[in-house]
Amino acid sequence: MQKKVLSGMRPTGKLHLGHWVGALSNWVSLQESARCFFMVADWHALMSEYKNTYQIKDIMLDNVADWLAWGIDPEKSVIFIQSEISEHLELFMILSFLTPLGWLSRCPTFKEQIKQLKEKEINTHAFLGYPVLQAADILLYKANFVPVGEDQLPHLEITREIVRRFHFIYGKEVFVEPQPFLTKIPRFLGLDGRKMSKSYNNFIALDEDDDSIKRKVLSMFTDPQRLRRQDPGHPGICNVFSYYKVFKPELEEEVYSWCTKSIKGCKECKADLAAIIVGLVAPGRERKKKFLNDKDLVYNILKEGGRKARIFAEETLREVKKAMGLW
Ligand code: TRP
Ligand code: SF4
Predict the structure, then answer these.
(1) In terms of domains, do 81 and 17 share one?
(2) pTM (predicted TM-score)
């Protein structure tokens, strides 16, 4: 049987190249070989953004327009909004019965977020349960694979533990133990060498305009030891070089050589990279316009996706209740 894939993104801000490299490009290619479910994780977004509810709808629309513009195809994949399928919260509750508190309070992402996002006041009941809702997302569709970044591995592990515990307690194999599916992309960082993130403002948005891309790429740090044009550079420690490896791998050797032999200066090297990124972003940005100008088109895609997703979610929840002797 065809394998199933589920993944989600929280609608908390604009999508940028980090999302493309780390997730979206992977989603697009998985569509060819698996039955894919791509979800807007709006409940998960609300766990940290419950004070900014008014933004979520616009961000969601903008994010989904990017998905569609960059190649997520509603003919091939089921695209839906988490909160439209009430089974997510129902299964979240059921799984909460049997998830020990220790699994959640010891989860490294939980501990880190509580420390990092102090101003968001996320020391809440729901936020502790974040991985349980994520487990419900995955298990409702019996996904075999979950494309995620490395930071999400602890959540996948909790999902797998919940599956085993449910099967052990109720003696019926209702769920599928999902496997993480990591991207093969080399490390990809923000413009300043830190993780690409909206809070660091070190990103290039998926719909960034050409001038702004050029300005941002030209502002990137390079090899700090290469002070003059005639000094040889060290590509191994230059973030610009790692961008070439991601976006134009076939140029890797050439860049290495123009850098180490001082054939090109950093400014020229960055201008070339900017042109490559413009070439990648501009077509997506143009395709996105169609979706932003026709919101009904996007809403209809989401509605149709919801209809398809619901069929799977309802069926799984029926099986769950039956296994628990509730039905
Ligand atoms: N927690 C994920 C993230 O922050 C988003 C997410 C929610 C998700 N539900 C999911 C990812 C289910 C994969 C599967 O990136
Ligand atoms: Fe980096 Fe390019 Fe400068 Fe080399 S030439 S240090 S790769 S920006």
Answers:
(1) yes
(2) 0.95
